[in-house]
Every structure is written in structure tokens, then in C-alpha cells.
Amino acid sequence: MDGPLQLAAHGEESAMRYEPTPEQIREACRKIREQWDDREYARRAGLTEQSLHWTPPGPVKVYLADREKSHSGE
Predict the structure, then answer these.
(1) pLDDT digits over 32-58, tens only?
(2) pLDDT in tens, 2-39
(3) Could you tell me how far CA 21 lies from the centroid of its own chain?
């Protein structure tokens, strides 16, 4: 274990617990991500083929003449 050890008391029992520093966590995550290809990185980032090509819908055009027709029953 490379990080600090802290004594954790649990009632009358005690146990040694490994608690990595933020820098150790970042380094471990970096090493894990080095093994990922682009596809795995995108998957873990929540990107899908669909989300890469999605565009928001365009504005809805409402014409007053059409609206009046629908209200008048034509």
C-alpha cells in the first residue's frame, strides 16, 4: 500500500484502512484509462453513436391562418 494508513475504530474493534490521496487516485485512474481505446473511452463517457449525430429539433412554425382554420372547424 502506497497511501497513508489510518486506524479506524468500529466499536471495540479496530482495523487498518488504506486511504489513497487524491493524487494517488488520479494516477490510478490515468493508468486504467491508458488501456482504453477510443471506443471504450466514448462508451464510458456516455457517448453513443446516436448521441454523436443527434441535433435538436428545429423551431415549430405555426401560421395564424392554419390556426384559425383548426379553431373554426374547417
Answers:
(1) 999 999 989 888 888 877 666 767 777
(2) 555 555 555 545 567 889 999 999 999 999 999 999 98
(3) 23
Dihedral angle computed from the Cα positions of residues 40, 43, 47 and 53, in that order, rounded to the nearest 10 degrees: 70
Decide: helix, strand or coil at residue 37. Answer: coil
Q: Which of 25, 26, 45, 49 is nearest to 37 (CA)?
A: 45
The pTM of the whole model exceeds 0.70: no
Q: Does residue 6 contact residue 20 with C-beta atoms inside 8 Å? A: no
Q: Rounded to an integer, what distance in angstroms lies between the CA atom of residue 28 and that of residue 12?
A: 33
Distances from the Cα of 23 to the Cα of 19, 34, 44, angstroms: 11, 17, 21
